[in-house]
Write a structure and sequence with these properties.
The chain is elongated. A hairpin with a 2-residue loop joins strand 5 (70-71) and strand 6 (74-91). 2% of the residues lie in helices and 41% in strands. The chain has one helix at 219-222, and strands at residues 14-15, 29-30, 34-41, 51-54, 70-71, 74-91, 93-98, 104-108, 112-116, 121-129, 136-145, 155-160, 163-164, 169-172, 188-191, 201-207. Strands 4, 5, 6, 7, 8, 9, 10, 11, 14 and 15 form a ten-stranded antiparallel β-sheet that branches. A four-stranded antiparallel β-sheet has the order 3-16-12-13, with no helix packed on it. Strands 1-2 form a two-stranded antiparallel sheet. It has one helix and 16 strands.
């Protein structure tokens, strides 16, 4: 007769000491060392989804957050992703909002007339410039943010509509400490071969950089504090 020992009936099991309250109120990471991240269907990138075309205004050359993703002056991005922008007249843009876990985050562009961001934003609350601009639009890009920090070879398998995606691009976590307004995403991003179109579904198997969280119980699994 075969015997069986039921260890737990819990819906999920957690182990080790990584601890980051914005992600999980209790210590520990999902028990499976290979973590399945199901992004589901992701909206099509919208170049003006955060700010529709406009001129900057006021002393800080601000834009009004009035794109299709905006409500009451805040743009909410359902799947955290990078921000893109374009404008006339050479200027430096400052984008302010929050990251995957709702933590304050800011990104500053190079001087020019466009910006393709590296950080994944969940919300955008302000866009300002160091000089007056016209014809400015701000929207979403195709770099998708991750819930955990990945290092080199941290992405194991990527799926699009349940089929392997072998030519995706993964950018590992930027471990610069402290982070700055010019550094990359603190957990890392994935750009799928086929861009999101509000129909395709995406998933990935990833390896968390350090499941213990590291010496501070956080950075190795969730990255340095965003800025």
């Amino acid at each position: 007769m075969t015997t069986r020992h039921t260890i737990t009936r819990a819906e999920a099991m957690y182990a080790q000491g990584a601890y980051y309250p914005p992600a999980n109120a209790l210590p520990g990471l999902p028990l499976d060392p290979v973590n399945y991240v199901n992004f589901g269907v992701i909206a099509t990138a919208a170049a003006n989804g955060i700010c529709a075309s406009q001129s900057s205004a006021g002393g800080n050359n601000a834009l009004t957050i009035n794109g299709a993703l905006a409500t009451a002056g805040v743009a909410t991005i359902p799947t955290p992703r990078n921000v893109v922008a374009a404008w006339t007249n050479a200027a430096i843009a400052t984008i302010t909002g929050t990251d995957y876990y709702g933590q304050p985050q800011t990104e500053v562009s190079a001087s020019g007339t466009s910006h393709t961001g590296k950080k994944a934003f969940a919300t955008v609350t302000a866009v300002t410039f160091n000089a007056a601009v016209t014809g400015a639009t701000v929207g979403t890009g195709v770099k998708i943010g991750l819930p955990y920090r990945i290092d080199i070879n941290g992405v194991l398998v990527v799926l699009t509509d349940n089929a392997p995606d072998s030519t995706y691009t993964a950018v590992v976590a930027d471990t610069t400490s402290p982070a700055t307004t010019a550094t990359g995403d603190v957990r890392g991003t994935i750009t799928f071969t086929s861009a999101p179109n509000a129909a395709r579904a995406y998933a990935a198997l990833i390896k968390i950089a350090d499941r213990t969280g590291g010496t501070d119980k956080k950075t190795g699994a969730y990255g340095v504090a965003p800025v």
